[in-house]
Amino acid sequence: MTEKRKGLVVFISIGILLCLTIYERIYAQSPFTYLVWSDEFDYTGTPDNTKWSFDIGGDGWGNNEGQYYTSRLENAKAENGKLIITALKESYGSNLYTSARLATRNKGDWLYAMVEVKAKLPEGIGTWPAIWMLSTDWEYGGWPASGEIDIMEHVGFDMGNVHGAIHTEAYNGMIGTQRGGDIYIPDAHQAFHVYAIEWSEDSIHFIADDVRYYSYPNYNTGYERWPYDKRFHLLVNIAIGGNWGGQQGIDDTIFPQTLEIDYVRVYQKFQQHQISGPSEVNAFQENIVYSIPGFPSAAYQWSFPEGVEISGGQGTSNSTVQWGDIAGTISVMQTYNNTSYTSTLEVSVVTTPDNSVIIRGNETEIGAWKTDEGEGNTLEMNYEE
């Protein structure tokens, strides 16, 4: 469910149901074994607001979609152990349809995980349900630079063909280069099936009912092809019409239509991670943040060189410090369930002579420091009393 998908969407065809035996059955062997987030929808009423937020509006969502997303119970509710998202044919402002789009943004955000959603899809021409993920912090820029992961997409004019895809700066729907696969599930609108991804540092695997049907590798060539080293959150919705869902129009006789979700479960693996943060600091620099990806219920013990003051975060996956004037090694030990990993980072310190300042840009004189051209690529600096 791209934010700005234009034109025809084409997926790499993987096969039909009769060919499922050629797919690799690896799902049960997943290394992601720790359940870190879930919603079983074992309550009634508004979806749990500690886990879900609503995206509201009807401006087309970059895809010329026809619905207005609301937070009303008529469009999204938990009932009988399921989340039910309902698309309705009704006038709402300038829109002719209503639906709901829920997101776990800043309530469930993960870096590397197995995400699985058990769902029953809507049917009928014009429906476009999606279970997908977006970047939480948009560190590489807006869509598509910071990435998108489509765990499940389905369009009602092509019943049973379920799609999984990725969108990046290099590969995305706006320019017709997105990467993905599909799998045929003829009763996707009649029965519940488990749609999942297994996302690691090396690849993203797309899975339906324990069958891996597509894999996207990390090419190790930069964020343009792999923006998936940042945290992402989950979204679920039914769009109506739009650039892809509405390619054959909208059948107004099909409503209401529902996307029913039995559960959402997110698993991660406890493993060693690199420390993120500057490897070069100024003497006595303040508010420096070091971190490693957090793991629920894990304990963290940070150690810093002599003279460094921890101003916040000891015991968590993020530590804020004021540096001293001594270089050295940072270490953090993370412990969970009697298993521990220690990560380290060497940090150097930049200092300037007493009573002086750092020369910046192309300035040739600041205070008592004077610069002269040296030999080759050198710069000669002299301090005058």
Folded structure, characterized:
This protein has 385 residues and is mostly beta strands. It has 3 domains: 17-268, Jelly Rolls; 271-351, Immunoglobulins (Immunoglobulin-like, Sandwich); 354-385, no CATH class. Helix content is 1%, strand content 43%. The chain contains 1 helix and 28 strands. It has one helix spanning 242-245, and strands at 34-39, 53-54, 67-69, 76-79, 82-92, 95-99, 101-103, 109-110, 113-120, 127-135, 148-153, 161-167, 179-184, 193-199, 203-208, 211-217, 232-240, 257-268, 280-282, 288-291, 299-303, 309-312, 318-322, 328-336, 339-350, 365-366, 369-373, 379-383. Strands 1, 3, 4, 5, 6, 9, 14, 15, 16 and 18 form a 10-stranded mixed sheet that branches. Strands 2, 7, 8, 10, 11, 12, 13 and 17 form an 8-stranded antiparallel sheet that branches. The chain is elongated, with a radius of gyration of 26 Å. The N and C termini lie far apart (66 Å). Mean pLDDT is 88; it is low at 3-27 and 359-366.
Q: Average pLDDT, to the nearest integer?
A: 88
Give me the CATH fold name of the largest domain. Jelly Rolls
Question: How far is the first residue's CA from the last residue's CA?
Answer: 66 Å
Radius of gyration: 26 Å
Do you know the CATH architecture of the largest domain? Sandwich
Pattern of helices and strands: EEEEEEEEEEEEEEEEEHEEEEEEEEEEE
CATH class of the largest domain: Mainly Beta
Low-confidence stretches: 3-27, 359-366
Tally the helices: what do you get?
Answer: 1
Work out the number of β strands. 28
Largest sheet entry: 10 strands, mixed
* Helix content estimate: under 10%
Strand percent estimate: 35-45%
> How many structural units, i.e. domains?
3
